[in-house]
Amino acid sequence: MSILYRSLLEEDVKPGLLDHFVRYQKTERVWYAENGQLREKEDSFTDDWDREKKNEVIQSLKQCMQGGGTVIGAFLGERLIGFAAVEGKKFGRSLHYLELSYIHVSKETRGRGTGLELFKLACTYAKQMGAEKLYIGAHPSAETQHFYRKAGCVPAKELNREIYRREPLDLQLEVSLDPF
Question: What is the dihedral of CA 16, 60, 151, 107, to 10 degrees?
């Protein structure tokens, strides 16, 4: 069965959307910034969304869409196996950034290129919305950072303090939308 990618409609983003989505991620190593350099260190923790967190994410996705952004879903049959959200409000000194607020692939379907395809679709959408760069407050795990580096992301030239304050351990990244 092939994966279908499509923009979600507001009526798609409802309770139960993430019931079968497995956010689970065990982290053993993280990247962090120190004196302007990126370094790697051991740090063991697990991310796993419970029902309450899934409901918070659903509300956040709704707010994204209501604010002019989009949510792109990856479906295997009827089941959502991945999603990316691009916020609708530009920011930065030249208003050239849009934020990639979410990109996740369900644990059991990782390693198939779904995340990279969602990332490319998010970049294409952001460029169509007039952005020059996509801004990402990126999870510090070594695996996540490898994903973003492979996708062409670099440390953000401008720091968005609001995004940084939400998750101060995240690395602030950007990617140019020229190739998209």
Answer: -30
Which residues of the chain are under the pLDDT cut of 70? Answer: none
Per-residue pLDDT tens digits for 82-98:
999 999 999 999 999 99
CA distance 78 to 84: 17
Residue 179's pLDDT is: 84
- DSSP states along the chain: --EEEEEPPGGGSSTTTTTT----EEEEEEEEEETTEEEEEEEEEEE---HHHHHHHHHHHHHHHHTT-EEEEEEETTEEEEEEEE-S--BTTTT-EEEEEEEEE-GGGTTSSHHHHHHHHHHHHHHHTT-SEEEEEE--BHHHHHHHHHTT-EE-SS--HHHHHH-TTSEEEEEE-TT-
Buried b vs exposed e over 112-139: b needs ≥16 C-beta within 10 Å?
Answer: eebbebbbbbbbebbbebebbbbbbbbb
Q: What is the pLDDT of residue 1?
A: 78
pLDDT for 33 equals: 86
pTM: 0.95
